[in-house]
Design a protein that fits this description.
alpha/beta; Aspartate Aminotransferase, domain 1; eight-stranded mixed β-sheet; four-stranded antiparallel β-sheet; 16 helices; about 15% strand; aminotransferase; PLP-dependent aminotransferase family protein; transaminase activity; PyrdxlP-dep_Trfase_major
Length: about 450
């Protein structure tokens, strides 16, 4: 009869303190549930690679295998293959950014670029500014280096410059601890909002005034469904550190991203990359190079845009039809995500189990804040991967779960067990007034 074996972790006391502080990615944790046949996933940020033409993939891959096999299967330079960097320069030129190959470094996806930037510039306790909420993968990459991440709220026009200026005044000019501001100006993840030109200009002005770098992450810039093209920050200021990727316009499985930055900045990052992975995949880079050189990729991109636009519209229409009046959400002009805000008393993290039982996933909002607490009444939902029919059904299922939570609170409010949201807010405001001037709050119930 086989005996049971219990295995104990014998390395627990040897784990680095920075790893103990890191949180797992909520998206990665949901991957196992997302593949269940009964689940409709609104959690991931995956492009629909089934839209890619088989012939284009075959041609680009064959070029790497048949024409350049000796190079494709060999080590490469740390900065990446020159010919692929030249292709990146062409892609950047389409966006309004002029750069040279020696101002480009290829990375193992833009996620690797985030880690390299953090590794190069962040010491424990350094200040990093970001939108709030912000990309959870960036928070995870930064957290290994133990920064003080301070989130600046956004509205429909992007990061609020008045709140950024107030935070910068608290930090002070010339503060050596202030390292950079990380922003996703186009169709922000998770918010879906786009920074307007006036705020882009003001952000760059403040970066010069207070002496911090701007790191522009632009994975979604080409995925615009409405409105006109927004000029990247990098096109307005050569000192901006720009991150790009092929993951959302080609294939995320070919882990290829890039950093466009001044040569002195890239030289520092190059040192960090040497110790991280020596070099990227030459095979992946050659496939990417031939895809964007030898295939009608712009036509495929237009297909992506058409399909994603339809799916976004399906999601926004379903939210209008099924979600309760207490809910609010963003209306993205592009990208992959919608940000939903529910009443403060709803915890989307604790609600996730009920959503899984109902056959739908999303990402709880607290995953997008460094404290893991803020945003608990919010969620990110994705529209790029599922069909319009599945999206409508998923939103319907999710609305039912939310309605059950709200109905429970409505019963408590009617019974007087808890205050209605507007009453609680009035009470908090009164207390705040009392704390600010030392006087007692005015009783407004009479």
């Amino acid at each position: 009869m086989p005996s049971a074996h219990i295995t104990f972790d014998q390395t627990g006391d040897k784990i680095a303190g920075r790893i103990r502080k890191m949180r797992p990615s909520a998206v990665r944790s949901l991957f196992a549930a997302a593949v269940r046949p009964d689940i409709i996933s609104l959690s991931g940020g995956m492009p629909d690679v089934s839209l890619l033409p088989e012939e284009s993939i075959r041609d680009a891959t064959r070029a790497a295998i048949e024409d350049e096999r000796a190079v494709a299967l060999q080590y490469g330079g740390t900065d990446g293959r020159l010919e692929t960097r030249q292709v990146v320069c062409g892609l950047m030129r389409d966006l309004g950014v002029r750069c040279k190959p020696d101002e480009v470094m290829l990375t193992t996806g833009a996620q690797s670029a985030l880690d390299l930037i953090a590794k190069t510039f962040i010491d424990p306790g350094d200040i990093v500014l970001a939108e709030g909420p912000t990309y959870l993968g960036a928070l995870q990459a930064f957290s290994a280096y133990e920064p003080d991440v301070r989130c600046i709220p956004f509205d429909d026009e992007g990061m609020r410059m008045d709140l950024l200026e107030a935070e910068l005044e608290r930090i002070g000019k010339g503060n050596p601890r202030l390292k950079f501001c990380y922003v996703i100006p186009n169709f922000q993840n998770p918010g879906g909002v786009t920074m307007v030109p006036e705020r882009r200009k003001r952000l760059l002005e403040l970066s010069h005034e207070y002496g911090f770098m701007v790191v522009e992450d632009d994975p979604y810039g080409r995925l615009r469904y409405d409105g006109g093209h927004m000029i990247p920050l990098k096109a307005l200021d050569a000192r901006v550190v720009y991150l790009g990727t092929i993951s959302k316009i080609f294939a995320p499985g070919l882990r290829t991203g890039w950093i466009v930055a001044p040569k002195d900045v890239l030289a520092r990052i190059n040192l960090a990359k040497q110790g991280t992975d020596l070099c990227g995949s030459s095979f992946d880079q050659i496939v990417v190079e031939h895809y964007f050189t030898d295939t009608p990729w712009e036509r495929t991109l237009q297909r992506f845009l058409s399909v994603y636009r339809e799916r976004r519209d399906a999601m926004l229409g379903a939210l209008d039809e099924f979600f309760p009046p207490e809910a609010r959400w963003t209306h993205p002009e592009g990208g992959l995500f919608v940000w939903v805000t529910l009443p403060d008393y709803v915890d989307t993290g604790s609600m996730l189990g009920a959503a899984l039982d109902a056959g739908v996933t999303y990402v709880p909002g607290d995953s997008f804040y460094p404290d893991g607490v803020t945003g608990r009444n919010c969620m990110r939902i994705n529209f790029s991967y599922e069909t319009p029919e599945n999206i409508v059904e998923a939103v319907r299922r999710l609305a039912k779960v939310i309605e059950e939570r709200l109905e429970l609170y409505r019963v408590f409010i009617a019974a007087g067990a808890i205050k209605a949201p507007e009453e609680a807010e009035a009470s908090e405001n009164a207390t705040a007034c009392a704390n600010s001037d030392g006087s007692a709050p005015v009783d407004q119930s009479r």
